[in-house]
Amino acid sequence: MALRLLTHFDVRADVLPSLAAEAGDTGVLETAYESLRVLNIERNGNIIYTYKDNKGNAVFGIYDCQTRQNEHLYTFEKDMQAVSCSVNSERTLLAASFVQYTKEGVRSELHPGSKCLTLLVEIHPVDSVKVLKAVDSCIWVQFLYPHAESHRLQSHLLLISEEKYIERFHIQITREDGNRVVIRNSSHLPRDRIAEDFVWAQWDMSEQRLYYVELEQSKSVLKCIQFWADESFTLMFEMPLDISLSGLRFKFVNFGYDYRQDQEKLCNQPSLCVFTNHTGSLCVCYSPKFDSWEEVTYSVFYLHKGYRKTFTAAPGSAGSHVAKGITFLNLGCLVAVYIPGHFLHLLNIQHPDLTCHSLFLTGSKMAAVLPPSPLQSLPGSLVLDCSSGKVYRATVDQSYLMWFLWNAARLDCDKMAALHCALLCGQDPGFQEDQVIQWICEHASACHSFDLIQELLIASSYWSVYPELADVDKLLAHSSVLAWNEEIPGVMLVTEELPLLLMKVYNLTGYWAKLNSNLEYVKYTKPHLHYHNSVVRREWHSLVSEEKTGKRRSTMYVRNILDNAVKVILNMETRTLEPRLIPLLQEEDRHQRLLVGLMVSELRNHLVRHLQCVEKKKIEQTVLDYISKLLNLTWCMLETIWRKHSAHPWVPRLNKHGSAAEFEVFHLMTRILDATNSLCFPLPPDLDNSEKNEKLKFSIVARLPPLLGQKVCRFWDHPMSSNIISRNHVAQLLKDYKKEPRNSMIGKSSFPTEFLPLNCFIEILTGLESSHQALCGFEGQDNVDSEFVEEAALKHTTVLLGL
Fold it and tell me: Which residue positions does the secretion signal occupy (predicted)?
């Protein structure tokens, strides 16, 4: 399945055994089994449920998700249907709303003139009951929770009315006879009006926020109220939304599940929900009323990015019926848009600019078997199945994504999206990056629209440091792709800019400061601030060129750069726990170390420039981690492809043609080289010149096309390379050689040797060089001449003779 649902709570499995132990009566269990359902989930994760006992009384209990224990809260000795329930953080007060109908369908005798009864009960111990509301409109209740658990002498209760207003009650309590809690002045509870004349509301119990939509001059305006730990509240922002809520039945999100709602009718209603996460993202997901089942339209307002994306998807084959409405699920950095049996769209809300970073699945590719009943998205990637009373923790299934990449991803957009979804999972426990690397090693040339290796290097390195620094998404690239013009099959997209100047954030604390930072960045930062290696490329080429020509920079400057490289290598070594097959980081590869050190310097300067509030030590470590990750990814790719063909270090056979396995290794190495060169990313220093590694290098050079092999040898400062260059030079001179009578010696060799065969041979070469130069203007390449050949021959002979 693309989405994996792990059961977090099951109202029957987690509650019924406790009831059985207490009651010991099968009749009670049978009645409870039929009526047991979830009413509310509080901020601390505790779950309030209700059921009917064998007398028809309404019973309330709470499940503590920390201790995994059940606690009885209150029994209301009337046969009434509970609509909503909440308990304060100290579990001393309980509020509940009931619809007053008996089994015979007549009104309750308690308040015969009202439809909905809202009660406030002292439950520590159970004592008085106060009627807060007795009206003909439905009421929902919700206690406010402070950020820290405490034994306060005041609680605050929200009452949300179907008549489109929200009130907050201030409840003072006193303690008598030890721990007995009593409501003070229960007949005159202070209250204030929070909001009114709205058409939609959503409660965020985790962050204690209330979102609601008001209609102002026929326009929908989204507002948010933040409740603070000091019992105050603030209107945080207002934002006009170009959406139509006409025909919307009055609806609340996350105020508990209303059992009375007809789900078949609700699926034809507009759907609206707000999702946030700690990075300062704010998404409004909206689906209008369906006019036709031939296509489904849904929009996501990425307020933190400044635009709205509207998607139009075909839900299935012609004539297929969408039995359930659209479902939006908050998965952290992803939002899932889901219609059971039709499609699943995993939207990347952290980087929503390009459609290729979001995964759209239909039909058999979807492979998501989510419950067909109504699902309610909760903070912390939790999902409530309202019918079964189960709470799940929803995650993207990495094993499915890997299966999809290996077996079902045919288009470049699918590969890109699945890769990014998999790397997003890298922040989850149990993520196995080696599976992603293995797939890329096998499919390095499989994409035409982008380079897979480049995408892995940039995206994986980005996500590895993403949790370490705030605003890193504004300063580091997360993808090698800057634009995507190809359509995503099955879904059409329209992007519109939002009038962010109309959005006003009224408080800059915590999450709201991050959101405001995102808004300011979108409004005023042009161009974007992503780091790139263009400065490093110029400086690196300049340093290498100066070293070749004998020019030198300041000794201190070069030393600092090389010291940066040493820090990266040491950082890599501390993170490498298992022995590696490929012996990298063994020699002083000065050019690569200069590149590593320059990148450390430039990236550090870039982050310090834009993160002035972050301590430099933290920035330094982030830079080292980022570049270490780049080098380690390259190392892991090489390690993966080598291990595929052998379980131990091997050397290709020098006396035979290269095998298919050796070609595959070489091909991947060239792809890595191309990818890193175009990005100016460093490579881990290569093999040293041990006997095995020399043979390996020579076997590769010997199998290259002749011209390419000659170019490679000029960069390899090694006696074997000199031999190859000398052989090529001699072969070129002797190509048209015809033996002629030997004249007197043209000149003396550069080496005072008495080895006559060599002296004779060098004499011939010198003569041929003179002839070629006279006829063709021939000049030895790279200072290769007979003297170079003589020196190489002598050194090679000395090695062979063991001298």
Answer: none
Q: How far apart are CA 75 and CA 51, in angstroms?
A: 10
Residue 479: pLDDT above 70?
yes
| Rounded distance between C-alpha atoms, residue 791 and residue 770, angstroms | 19
Q: Which long-range contacts (CB under 8 A, 24 or more apart) does 675-679 make?
A: 675/451, 675/453, 675/454, 675/457, 676/457, 676/634, 678/451, 678/454, 679/454, 679/457, 679/458, 679/480, 679/533
> Could you tell me the pLDDT band of residue 10, with boundaries at 50, 70 and 90?
very high
Residue 126 and residue 582: Cα distance in Å, rounded? 71
Query: What are the tokens at 67?
Result: 């201790």
Q: Got the DSSP string for 761-795?
A: HHHHHHHHHHHHHHHH----GGG-SHHHHHHHHHH
Separation of alpha carbons 368 and 745, rounded Å = 86
Q: Who has greater pLDDT, 759 or 254?
A: 254
Residues 532-569 pLDDT 10s: 888 899 999 998 888 878 777 788 999 999 999 999 98
How far, in Å, CA of 49 to CA of 35, rounded? 10
Helix (H) or strand (E) holding 105: none
Question: ω into residue 527 within 30 of 0, thus cis?
Answer: yes
Side chain identity at 775, as an amino acid letter? L
List, for residues 232-266, the tens digit of each pLDDT value: 899 999 999 998 876 666 678 888 765 555 455 55
- Between helix 719-733 and helix 706-715 the angle, nearest 10°, is 140
Find out whether 12 and 33 touch, Cβ atoms under 8 Å: yes
Distance in angstroms (rounded) separating the CA atoms of residues 279 and 253: 23
pLDDT band with cut points at 50, 70 and 90 for residue 497? very high
Greater model confidence, 256 or 88: 88
Return the pLDDT at 454.
Answer: 95
C-alpha neighbours within 13 Å on the C-beta side of residue 240 = 11
Q: Could you tell me the two tokens for 506?
A: 């009224």
The tally of CA atoms less than 13 A away on the side-chain side of residue 194 is 28
- 441-468 burial string, b = 16+ CB within 10 Å, else e? beebeebeebbbbbbbbbbbbbbbbbee
With CA atoms as reference, report the closest residue to 240 among 275, 215, 267: 215
Ranked by mean pLDDT, which of 247-261, 426-440, 466-480, 775-789 comes out on top? Answer: 466-480
DSSP state at residue 243: -
Q: What are 40's two structure tokens? A: 């509310």
